[in-house]
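Input record, target 12 of the design panel.
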């Protein structure tokens, strides 16, 4: 039987930490869906369409990776997709509390939905989309922390604002 995993998140923007988890998930499961939450961020930097386009381009050569969007409850999306598990990344103990709450709430909403946690490579354990946006906005270097396409798109955003 083929196993399908859903890796949900805001991905605003996609970081190399996300890419690392997706690559690990793709080795563990037959297929992994990067599921971009439509309304997770109140004021996102990248539109959902931009985030989808970026993730599709980054994983264009990886047939086991699919990029999709979802609205509403994650467990409903997981059921709709007939997926087996939710994958979430755990970077540090500080992630644990929120992830534990989400996993148990999702289990309460649907007892059939299981969450699997995966640890990224240690060089990515301190990266978050929020920090990337903040560092970049203040002129810091994010090279090596996000895919090159994301870095280019961050520069495009700044140029668009400067115009
Ligand atoms: O990248 P993020 O912001 O940590 O991802 C959080 C996300 C999108 C996975 C979470 O907010 C979510 O699942 N949202 C969908 C709505 C939902 O099901 N909420 C209840 C979760 S317990």
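The sequence produced for target 12 reads:
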């Amino acid at each position: 039987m083929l196993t399908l995993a859903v890796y949900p998140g805001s991905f605003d923007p996609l970081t190399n930490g996300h890419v690392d988890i997706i690559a690990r998930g793709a080795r563990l499961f037959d297929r992994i869906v990067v599921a971009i939450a439509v309304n997770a961020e109140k004021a996102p930097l990248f539109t959902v369409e931009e985030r989808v386009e970026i993730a599709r381009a980054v994983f264009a050569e990886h047939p086991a990776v699919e990029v999709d969007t979802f609205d509403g409850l994650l467990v409903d999306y997981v059921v709709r997709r007939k997926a087996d598990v939710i994958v979430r990344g755990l970077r540090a103990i500080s992630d644990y509390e929120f992830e534990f709450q989400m996993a148990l709430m999702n289990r309460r909403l649907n007892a059939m939905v299981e969450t699997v946690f995966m640890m990224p490579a240690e060089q990515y354990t301190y990266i978050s989309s929020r920090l990337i946006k903040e560092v970049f906005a203040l002129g810091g270097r994010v090279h090596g922390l996000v895919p090159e396409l994301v870095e280019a798109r961050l520069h495009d955003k700044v140029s668009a604002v400067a115009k």
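DSSP finds six helices and five strands in the chain.
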